[in-house]
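Below is how a single chain appears once it has passed through the pipeline. First comes the sequence as given, then the structure the pipeline wrote out for it. We keep one example in the README because the format questions we get most often are answered faster by looking than by reading.
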Amino acid sequence: MSVFAERLKELRKEKGLTQQKVADSLNISQPNYRRWESGERRPSVETLVMLADYFEVSIDYLLTRKNQKVFENEKIYTEEDLIIILQDFEKFILPFSFNIVHSSVSKYLNYRKNKRK
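Resulting structure:
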């Protein structure tokens, strides 16, 4: 079995998901997903990006033997982190623009939360 297939299966099981649940979440067929986990096939580059985003790991982690799920210089920001950043950012932009940025970030965070469910 390829490193990719092993990693994909491991990530799915860590989250306690079935192949069908992952396939449904990514809007792909379960047989295609099963083929990736079994090592019969590899997904397209676009699908690799989608899988990496879904499992919140780097593409490098999916494809290689590196044990680092996320690059060291890549940080997953929490909502609290982003609020602090926005508060600092507010000093440099007009109040009207700040409200637009803040609203966009809030919508993005909600999107990310819903995507993980």
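The chain has a mean pLDDT of 78.

See the next section for the split statistics.
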